[in-house]
Design brief:
This protein is an alpha/beta fold and 285 residues long. It has a single domain (61-284), classed as 2-enoyl-CoA Hydratase, Chain A, domain 1, CATH 3.90.226.10. The protein has 11 helices and 9 strands. A 7-stranded mixed β-sheet has the order 3-4-5-6-7-8-9, with helices on both faces. Its EC number is 2.1.3.15.
């Protein structure tokens, strides 16, 4: 083997080296660029700032586990119905079997479905809380999400607890058809009984909150709170424009637009949410 052939072989080996690939992957995960202002930050800076850009206050997507950590007193979270999961009642299939999608999502997120429910405390005030997770099939509302939230609301009513639901959803889950749409009425009915018991219910709308979730429990709160610049809608922007044959404002379907027009009550940054919820719960208690 000639020297030139040996050098060519070494170069090819170094280019295909798994060590180099691992380094580049790690480097990519260490540095994060803001989607709004392109500010480049170390991942620890973002995590320590509640996943909010320190330069422009853009709110990155947060998981349900992140929100538990950000909002509640340490070690106060007690989950319900952790292993409740869908059984693919319709045998739905598109490019992939729905049952296979569920298995994949469970492996990726370590969740049984798109919501976590439980009881926790905020500055020692006990609350029942449901936290939707967009990572699990876009936070879509299927029969399990509806069942878990209904059980949570019924438990909150029985224990005379205030209720908080954090919404992050693309709407009803099409793979479950009418069974997913039924959850809108089911959850709303449980909320009515909670309201009749004179117990407070807060909703926190994060980006995105859309479809059947917006059309039901997301907009039924005694106080409706939203994160800054959150996408909040029922139908998509293009659908509305094509229906009414008009162009919509640039900030249409944002939390700021909805606040200006009286659809939501407060816009609160994630960094201040815990302290503001504590004050609100104290006022309502």
């Amino acid at each position: 083997m000639s020297l030139s052939q040996w050098l060519a072989g070494k170069k090819k080996m170094s280019l295909n080296s798994p060590i180099k690939h691992t380094f580049s992957t790690q480097n990519k995960n260490l540095w994060i660029k803001c989607n709004q202002c392109n500010f480049l930050m170390y991942y620890k800076v973002l995590n320590e700032n509640f996943k909010v850009c320190p330069k422009c206050s853009y709110h990155f997507q947060a998981s349900s586990q992140d929100r538990i950590f950000y909002i509640f007193d340490r070690d106060s979270w007690h989950s319900f119905d952790v292993y409740l999961s869908s059984t693919d009642p319709l045998g739905f299939a598109d490019r992939k079997l729905y049952s296979a999608r569920l298995i994949d999502m469970k492996a990726r997120t370590c969740l049984s479905d798109a919501v976590q429910t439980g009881i926790a405390s905020i500055n020692s005030i006990s609350v029942a809380c449901g936290i939707m997770d967009f990572r699990f099939m876009g936070g879509s509302m299927g029969s399990v999400v509806g069942e878990k939230l209904t059980r949570l609301i019924e438990k909150a009513t029985k224990l005379q607890l205030p209720l908080i639901i954090l919404c992050a959803s693309g709407g009803a889950r099409m793979q479950e058809g009418m069974l997913s749409l039924m959850q809108m009425a089911k959850i709303s009915s449980a909320l009515y009984k909670h309201s009749e018991a004179s117990l407070p219910y807060f909703t926190i709308l994060t980006s995105p909150t859309t479809g059947g979730v917006t059309a039901s429990f997301a907009m039924l709160g005694d106080l409706i709170i939203a994160e800054p610049n959150a996408l909040i809608a029922f139908a998509g922007r293009r659908v509305i424009e094509q229906t009414i044959k008009e162009d919509l404002p640039d900030n249409f379907q944002t939390s700021e637009y909805l606040f200006k027009h009286g659809f939501i009550d407060l816009i609160i940054s994630r960094a201040h949410l815990r302290s503001q919820l504590s004050k609100l719960l104290y006022l309502y208690s």
